[in-house]
């Protein structure tokens, strides 16, 4: 999957994300995103709007995240790395992360859990 394909899938799942992309500080001068820039922008958007989306969209998002993370066990793909470092890490220790944790697959959750240090109780 390419960065543009991921962006298209995210915009399809979360239509308001296209407006966020249009005004993003993470876009390069030519208007493109690096994988890390796209995932950083999406993490910002997701944290701000997680409550606005239904379970269906969130489940589909984390199916997509899991497929990307699971496909790269050796951390050699920049897109998979960016999903981990600029999305999963960025939602850790937030309400969005807490809401999303039960929806994660085993590979994404294994990456996410050490970053998501929530106080118990």
What distance separates the N and C termini?
Answer: 40 Å
Structural class comes to mainly alpha
Rg computed from alpha carbons, rounded to a whole number of angstroms: 14 Å
**Poorly predicted ranges (pLDDT <50, ≥5 residues)?**
none
Mean pLDDT, all residues: 93
> In sequence order, what are the helices and strands, one letter per element?
HHHHHHH
Briefly characterize the structure:
About 60% of the residues lie in helices and about 0% in strands. By secondary structure, it is an all-alpha fold. It is built from seven helices and no strands.
Overview of the structural elements:
The protein is mainly α and 121 residues long. It has seven helices and no strands. Helix 4 (55-70) packs across helix 5. The longest helix is centred in the middle third of the chain and has 16 residues, at 55-70. It starts with a helix and ends in a 9-residue tail after the last helix. 27% of the residues are buried. The mean pLDDT is 93.
Question: Topology of this structure?
Answer:
Layout: H1 3-13, H2 17-22, H3 35-49, H4 55-70, H5 78-91, H6 95-100, H7 106-112
